[in-house]
Design a protein that fits this description.
The chain has about 260 residues and is of the alpha/beta class. It has 11 helices and 10 strands. Helix 1 links the parallel strand 3 and strand 4. Helix 3 runs antiparallel to helix 10 and helix 4 crosses helix 5.
Amino acid sequence: MQATSSMRLQFADGLATVTLTEAQRDNPVDGDFARDFKRVIAELSDAPGLRAVLLCAEGSNFSFGGDLKKFYPERANLAPIVRSWTSDFHAGLARAWQLPVPIVAEVQGWAMGGAVSLIAGCDVVIAAQSAKLGSAFAQLGFSCDSGSSVTLTARMGVARARRFVLLAEVLTSEEALHTGLVDRVVADAQLAEAALAITRSLAAGPTVAYGEIKRLFLRAGRMEIEAQLEDESLTLAKVSATRDAQEGVAARIERRAAVFEGR
């Protein structure tokens, strides 16, 4: 078992479980998370006998996404922070999507922003009935990152994914099911059992065939993943330097309505 400051990796009988462990902070996506995720995925890439991965989180919420409390005091100088965080996180995501085994996401409570993109990039997404999935990028004056333009489009289609991000929508589990963002909704009390059952089923399946199926679907209908991730990173770094982005972060932390100036 390998553990980092923000997640834990366990491996048994071909099944790897990656658990987000900062429940007291609602599992934020920050610099430590990005570095830890990159490292854990690198370990999985070299793990002998790997046949399936379960991604889950401790606590009542999967993740609220980017840690605005860390952004707030540095809001006038966000571009270098964004470039640093996304450098690690995007590298981990690019490798995670290309793991030649199925990845199952188990989602409870709230999942927001970059965490939703992480979930959407998984092969099977199981959500609790009470789960809510949302995009807050535009509400904060940010463009999207974490592969959102790739994974959300792959699951929801271009028009629906664009609307989801532009309008900063929050979807119930049933709404997310209807858009294709999640694959199955189960009762809250059955979430862990259902997610583990389907991951075990996949781990017992034809691993090589699964890997080739994933590769073919990644290749079909997608632009170069690495190029899109880099574009997202550079775009968010540019947008984070605007007055509106600084105002969006400040307004959220100060618990007031944001006043955007369009610049």
